[in-house]
Amino acid sequence: MLRCRPTPPALVLLVLLQGVAVVLLVGWYGNLLPSIRAPTQGKVHVLLLSSWRSGSSFLGQVFSQHPDVFYLMEPAWHVWTTLQQPGARALRMAVRDLVRSVFQCDFSVFEAYTPEHRNVSNLFMWSHSRALCSPPACPLTPRRAFSNESECKRRCDTRGLQGAEDACRSYSHVVVKEVRFFDLVSLYPLLRDPAIDLRIIHLIRDPRAVVKSREQAVKALMRDNALVLEEGDAEVIDTQYRVMQEVCRSHVRIHETATLKPPDFLRGRYKMVRYEDLVLNPLDEIESMYSFAGLEMNMQLQEWIYRITHGKGKGTRKEAFKITSRNAKDVAQAWRTTLPHDKVQRIQEVCKGAMSLLGYRLVDSKKEQAQLDLDLVESRKHYRFTWLPRKTTTPSRG
Ligand SMILES: *[C@@H]1O[C@H](CO)[C@@H](O)[C@H](O)[C@H]1NC(C)=O
Ligand SMILES: *[C@@H]1O[C@H](CO)[C@@H](O)[C@H](O)[C@H]1NC(C)=O
Asked: Which residues form the Sulfotransferase domain (predicted)?
């Protein structure tokens, strides 16, 4: 009898054990419910966040051609072109939710934005995704090979998006490039979502070079301009400074959100990259971005990067990117000889804050603008800020 009566310490122990059991059970049960806690299963999600004419297509290819990456370019194009009306601000949640679905390889979201009987070719710029030119989406390009956009376009179109979804599920990394985010706050739900292990790479470029590049694409940018400016049909004339102002503001907003007192869930998840550093030192910069995203560099990729950034090289195949090491600096500087100084001054006026934050020196005169040995890109140590990448992905973060 006496032996059956628990002593007070034993009682405490029993209560504790019961507590532990409850915690374990709830934890186990919680894991069974994906809506409560869906682990990422080691999957990493990368958002290449940039703006128009800032080298983001090149950066996109750097990820797209990696054998562990499923890449999609500008899926939010569908949102902007379908829903157009309200302007960028009103569309940001729709854009965010579309990107979330893509990260989760749920392509049913495109039903809202594509024709009823859709083909994979209804996805914007689909053939720029190496993964959509490789098995299981298409037999054309072996997974470790580099895809050819025009070949892929010709031979990899299929009915439905099932193939794309299956392909997406079969990769460890899903990478999306977007120019249609203007803040990080709308991405907070993704950053907090335990099912998504998000890393954000923010690519920026000297606004003066951006303007020069935008001038070669005035028509193509008209519709987007109107949405950026929240205007139904903005006139082309003089919109460009106002658009640049919005773009510059958004860079400041994004960078400051990530670097000044960022919320905990942003730590280790943001990296800023300047286009100028990327073209001058592509291998190091790309290696560091890969490592931030948890991707391995290999010999084959190194050779390919060398080839596309140096123009000629092994073989005589003409590559899609015309950045050569010889002219990388020229490309970065071209605006200095082609943009009139009064234009440069206006860009500097509207983008002053962003330029000083991101390390671009202003020119004060026509003479300074023309003096090409005067370096206008501050060395990185003066501006550079990145969080150290997190060690690795744990099955369930948060
Ligand atoms: C969709 O893909 C199928 C299969 O490749 C092709 O035969 C068809 O022409 C495509 N349809 C459209 C509208 O592109
Ligand atoms: C892609 O393939 C086409 C032939 O379809 C060829 O003309 C072109 O040079 C190839 N591009 C590259 C970058 O290899």
From this structure: 45-358
